[in-house]
Specification:
Helix content is 38%, strand content 20%. It is built from 10 helices and 14 strands. It is globular and about 45 Å long. The chain starts with a strand and ends with a helix.
Length: 292
Amino acid sequence: MIPVGLTLQPEAAYLERLAPLFDEEADYFEVAPETLWRKDGGGEIVPNGFHRRFLEIREQTGKPFVAHGVGLSLGTADEDDPARLRRWLERIRADHALFAFGWYTDHLGATTLDGRALTLPVPLPMTPEMAARVRTRLRHLQTVVPDVGFENAVFYFLFGRPLDEPAFFRAILSAPRMHLLLDLHNVYTMGLNLGFEPSEYVDGLDLTRVIEIHISGGSDSEPLWLPSGATRRLDSHDAPVPEPVWALLERVLPRCANLRGVTLERMEGTVEAGDVGLLREEVRRAKGIAAR
C-alpha cells in the first residue's frame, strides 16, 4: 500500500499537538531542510534546535524521512550562484547522512535572483533552455540524493498558458531518477485563480514520473489586498483538504505507477488542539484511497 506521511514543522506547539499522529498514523515524515538551519556569526549554515528535535523524532519512531526544500532555486541562472549552490549542497549532504532522505524535491521556480533570496518562487520561461537548466540543477542535487524532483508550484502569473506546464515538465523530466512531486492543492489553486480545469491539467501530466503527492487546504485572500476587491485562492496550508482536492487524488492516484508516498501538509501556527482529530481523519481518508 502507498504510505501516507505528515510534514514536520518548526514549531513546538505543532510538534506537541501532533505527536500522537506521528506515533500512530504517519508512515513517514517530510521536512523542509532549510527550517533546520541557521547562519552562525561567520555566515556558515549550521543546524538549529529543530534539527536536533527532528532527529529525536526519527530515532523515537524509526520512521523514514523525505526532504522537500524551498531554497535550491532550480531556475537560477546567475553567474555568481555556484558558490551559494555548493554551500547549500554541502549542508544537504550533511543532513542526508543523518536523516537518510528517501528522495529530495524542491519547488519549481527561482527563489534566488541576483543573489537575493525571495519569499516565494517566481515562475520560469517554459523554454527548452530553461528545461535544460533545471535538469542541470537536479543533476547537482543527485550527487547528494539519488532520487530528486520538483513540485508544481503555485504562481499568480505565468510565462505562457497554464496548460502548457505539463509539456514543460515532460521536457525537464527526461533523465533517470528525476521525478515530479504533484501538489494537488496547487493545481486546484491555480485552476481557480487562472481559470482552467484542474482535471485537464493533471490528465496532461506524465503521471509515471510522480514520486509523491501533496494534499492540503488553503484559504482566500482578503478583499482589501487588491484595489478591485477581488480575492485569490492562497496555498496557505491552513485549512482542511477541500473536496475537489480529494476528488483529484481519487482521479490520479491509480495512474501514478511509481508513486512512493502521499503527504498531508499543514503549516506551523495553523494547528489548534481541536484540529488533531480532523488531521487524523484526513490521514486515514488518504490511506483508504491509497488502499483502493
